[in-house]
Amino acid sequence: MRLHVLGLFAFSSIASAQLTFNVTKAHETGNWDKYVCLTNKKFIERVPDCLKKCQSDAAKKDGCAEDDFACHCVNTQAFSDLVEPCAFPPELGGHGTCTTDELGPVRGIITDLCNFFNASLYSAYEDCPQPLSKDLTHSIIECEETVITY
Ligand SMILES: *[C@@H]1O[C@H](CO)[C@@H](O)[C@H](O)[C@H]1NC(C)=O
Ligand SMILES: *[C@@H]1O[C@H](CO)[C@@H](O)[C@H](O)[C@H]1NC(C)=O
């Protein structure tokens, strides 16, 4: 599909998703401080301006609690289906304003984020104030294979 040409959010557009993570990368110094209790408001500071509103809207609409990145990350397909058409420019099949230059760094940001949350799930959300969607997250991953690398 044209929308997935950059594959920014949908890392595997193959039919059956796998809960994937690299343990070494997840444990890199600074990650915990960067991601503990992560909210959408805090995360959008890290994405380009053209993406902020799309990111924010997608986080409210993908079925997960807005400030639950463990859920957004395992819910990649629903999330990408919302954020990509919103952010991608017409030449990439969307109706957004991001240029390919702006989108370039986003993949690394999302991979790092979701690698961390795929690996840690709710550990970094213990004792955090926001509502979470643990049931949805667990219902998604219980049907998936887990692929751990180091
Ligand atoms: C896992 O992440 C580490 C640190 O970023 C990297 O050096 C290693 O190559 C990665 N492993 C795999 C299998 O990608
Ligand atoms: C996180 O896991 C989901 C499946 O639950 C997978 O689709 C996604 O690609 C994984 N993200 C990373 C960065 O490995």
From TrEMBL:
GO cellular component, one term: side of membrane
Statement: the UniProt record of this protein carries the keyword Plastid: no
Organism name: Aaosphaeria arxii CBS 175.79
Signal peptide: 1-17
Similarity field: Belongs to the RBT5 family.
InterPro entries reported in the protein's UniProt record: Extracellular_membr_CFEM_dom
Domain named CFEM: residues: 43-115
Membrane topology: Lipid-anchor; GPI-anchor
Keywords for the protein's UniProt record, in alphabetical order: Disulfide bond, Glycoprotein, GPI-anchor, Lipoprotein, Membrane, Secreted, Signal
Keyword Secreted: yes
Protein name: CFEM domain-containing protein
Compartments where located: Membrane; Secreted
